[in-house]
Structures are given as C-alpha cells and as structure tokens.
From TrEMBL:
Family per record: Belongs to the RAMP family.
Subcellular location: Cell membrane
Domain of life: Eukaryota
Entry keyword set: Cell membrane, Disulfide bond, Membrane, Receptor, Signal, Transmembrane, Transmembrane helix, Transport
Alphabetical list of InterPro entries matching this protein: RAMP, RAMP_sf
PANTHER family: RAMP2 PROTEIN (PTHR14076:SF10), RECEPTOR ACTIVITY MODIFYING PROTEIN RAMP (PTHR14076)
UniProt-recorded name of the protein: Receptor (G protein-coupled) activity modifying protein 2
Transmembrane stretches, start-end: 124-145
Amino acid sequence: MSEHLSPVTVNNMACRDNSTRCMILCEHCNENFPDEKMECLLDVLQLTCLKDFNTDMNHSDTDWCNWEKVRGLYSDLSICTEKASDCLSITYPNPLVEKIFLDIHSQYFQDCPSEELSDPPPPIVFALVITPICLIPVMVSLVVLKTKNGDGST
C-alpha cells in the first residue's frame, strides 16, 4: 500500500501527502522558509534536482547536443521538479521551474544546432520559389485563351 494518503499540514505549510519524501521537504520549508513556498521550492530544487543534474551533465563525456544521450538526465530533472512542486502543493509547471529549464538550456544546449528550424537545402528552396512564379503566367494564359474563345461564362 502506498504512503500517499491525503493532504496534510506541517506547521503552516500544506503538504501534498504524508509520504516520507514530501514530509521531509515540507519540514525543511517550515524550518527555513516559513510562508515562502516559492523560495523554498527554489532551495529544494537547487539542493536536489539541479545539483544531481549539473553533476551528471558535468561528469558526462557525452555530446550534450545528442538528445539520445541526455534524454534520461533531462527526464529525471523534469520528474524531480514536478515531484518537488507537487509535494509543496505548488502548481506545475510554474514560472520558477520554467526559468530553471530556460537557464539549463542556455547553459548546456545553447550551441546545439536545431535541425527543425534550419533552412531547407537550396534545391528545395529554389523549387518552392520557382513553382508559383512559373504557374502564374500559365494560369493567366489559360484565362486569356478561354475568354478569347468564348468559353468563359460572364
């Protein structure tokens, strides 16, 4: 049976459930950040999720731009931030977590090429540009020929 029963209050802090992990986080917040849930969340994330992520990324000899190699670390970070927010009864995602992920992207992934946003190869660009240019005179010629022959209905 799960430890998750129902929301509990530890001193003044509403804790999502009475699991050991949540109770530890809520007690930490009550002792160090009474009435400051977001500051406590930042502290918790820095001490747990971000510390683990940064350690793993800096000790990893993998290419940070290779998604297959960093996906697990990134997923672990996402799950950790969500669980911490949930334990402290803070909606997820929230502006603090979004800022943390933006900071991570600028620190680790800023120089990674984004293939989804890159320009297509020149032959494809040429084909996409020249096709409508060629079609316009053909369409105008067809309209003129049809109206000259009396086939057009007006």
